[in-house]
């Protein structure tokens, strides 16, 4: 049986919440970048992550980053 994209996303969110992740409301690009920086610091045990290192990550890992004018919902670990 094929699930819709919505159903797959909802199942993933439920699974992450079951693993003690929580939802984070992100409405601006700056909030998304701050959350990304925080998650990289947590999961790589780097505090604080230098702005230059974050910029290099974005340049090399996410070359097509374009988020202007949209609303986002991201997952954040507790």
Going across the biggest sheet, name each strand in turn: 1-2
> How many structural domains?
1
Spell the H/E element sequence: HEHHE
* Backbone shape: elongated
Termini gap: 34 Å
Question: Total strand count, please?
Answer: 2
Mean pLDDT: 76
Q: Main sheet, how many strands, which sense, barrel? A: 2 strands, antiparallel
Strand content: 15-25%
Structural class determined from secondary elements: alpha+beta
Write down the Rg: 14 Å
Low-confidence stretches: 64-78
Percent helix range: 40-55%
Helix tally equals: 3
Brief digest:
The chain has three helices and two strands. The protein is an alpha+beta fold and 78 residues long. The protein is elongated.
Describe the structure.
With 78 residues, the protein is of the alpha+beta class. The protein has 3 helices and 2 strands; from the N terminus they run αβααβ. Strands 1-2 form a two-stranded antiparallel ribbon. The protein starts with a helix and ends with a strand. The C terminus is likely disordered.
Secondary-structure blueprint of this entry?
Layout: H1 5-18, E1 21-26, H2 29-44, H3 51-61, E2 72-77
Antiparallel strand pairs: 1-2
């Amino acid at each position: 049986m094929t699930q819709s994209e919505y159903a797959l996303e909802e199942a993933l969110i439920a699974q992450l919440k079951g693993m003690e992740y929580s939802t984070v409301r992100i409405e601006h690009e700056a909030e998304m970048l701050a959350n990304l920086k925080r998650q990289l610091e947590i999961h790589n045990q780097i505090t604080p992550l230098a702005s230059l290192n974050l910029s290099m990550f974005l340049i090399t890992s996410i070359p097509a980053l374009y988020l202007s004018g949209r609303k986002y919902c991201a997952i954040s670990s507790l």
